[in-house]
Amino acid sequence: MNRVALLLLLSASPALAQTPGLPVYGGGFSPTIEIEGLVGFASKEASTGKGMTLGARGTLAMGRLGLSATVASVNPSGPGGSQKAYGAMLGFKVVGGALSPFALYLQGGAGTMDSGDPDSSQVHIPVGAAASLVIPTPVLSIRPWVAPRLQLVRTTVAGGSTFENLFAIGAGVDLTLLGGMSFRAAYDRVKDQDGTLGLSMALHL
Known about the structure:
Layout: H1 3-12, E1 33-42, E2 51-62, E3 65-76, E4 83-95, E5 102-113, E6 120-133, E7 135-136, E8 140-157, E9 160-177, E10 181-190, E11 196-204
Antiparallel strand pairs: 1-2, 1-11, 2-3, 3-4, 4-5, 5-6, 6-8, 7-8, 8-9, 9-10, 10-11
């Protein structure tokens, strides 16, 4: 693959989030183990290009720390096969307790996608904050959240590297049933690019 074709591939394929094709999650975490299935829908002018991403995420939280790992399959529209994507995120709760409806988190992570070329890579490193608010009801809790961040992008092609600093923001809402199952919707956008819509279902163990 020549350099021009490789640059086009990298600019069209990697992520808006810590895991390519999926929004950065900013709804916080509970002190438990969580397993989540995700689907992301990227628009034409998003960083991944138009397409759908299917993923699975596991989260382990202890006290004020939470660590999540995600694996996904990015399926772009048009010709070309799917590609594997990977990501991880570490969060720390700086404000909020067990009985407080408001929480503020600091979070950062990294994600990449297998380009098929060992000499090329692109890594996205989101670093930012997230604020959430729990609204209890008799049958479920509603948790809206917003998560602004700085998206650091490192692209390596044929031994050379470039860096970008991009502003990005995600927002969403979690609906958690009394039994511990959550349904989530999120939207993620990087400045001057189309966004990515994400839907997911999570089970708290």
